[in-house]
Amino acid sequence: MTSHTSFLLIGTLAMQANTTKDTIRHYDEMGLLRSRKRQAGSRLYTEFHPECIERVEIIKSAQTNGFTLNEVKSYLNDCFDGSFDVDKQINIISEKLKQVTYQQINLTNAIKQLSARHAVLEQMKLNNMGILSKDEWERKLADQMANGDKPETKNWRR
């Protein structure tokens, strides 16, 4: 870090990066940001390199895409230290894409199951049905899962 660079105090960085001081402190403690300590009287200030604004934006974007802070740290170090390896990044992105696709499949299945349960419960309410036996519940749930988004046409009255 050069001495002619104009460093930022935490409040300025937080404001310019549209985040909180606590977030900046956390990122700094994890080694995600470039900072230095400066003594001013009896106080010790942390000053941040101006590139930290871009670093915070990269961190937030990466988190939105499912990356952990530790994964982001490795990427940032490679980018800003000049050791960026395209093949390494392709492998990392490919692995993350597999993970996110798996999560998407799980979420899609959860949505289908919850929607089916919701539809069965709505039909029970509509038809003033009491508690179903386990077998009845499972059959109606299976029927609803098989029908998907199709409207229920069967008479559910016992």
Summed up, what is this model?
The chain has helices at 10-16, 21-29, 52-64, 69-80, 86-126, 134-147, and strands at 8-9, 35-40, 43-48. By secondary structure, the protein is mainly alpha-helical.
Strand count, sense and barrel status of the largest sheet are: 3 strands, antiparallel
Helix content: 55-70%
Number of helices: 6
Q: List the secondary-structure elements in sequence, H or E.
A: EHHEEHHHH
Oligomer status: single chain
What's the shape? elongated
On the 0-100 scale, what is the average pLDDT?
86
Tell me the fraction of residues in β-strands, as a range. Answer: 5-15%
Show unreliable segments: 151-158
Explain what you see.
This protein has a three-stranded antiparallel β-sheet with strand order 1-3-2. 61% of the residues lie in helices and 9% in strands. The chain is elongated and about 75 Å long. The chain is mostly helical.
Q: Topology of this protein?
A:
Layout: E1 8-9, H1 10-16, H2 21-29, E2 35-40, E3 43-48, H3 52-64, H4 69-80, H5 86-126, H6 134-147
Key attributes of the depicted protein:
158 residues, mainly alpha, 6 helices, 3 strands, disordered C terminus
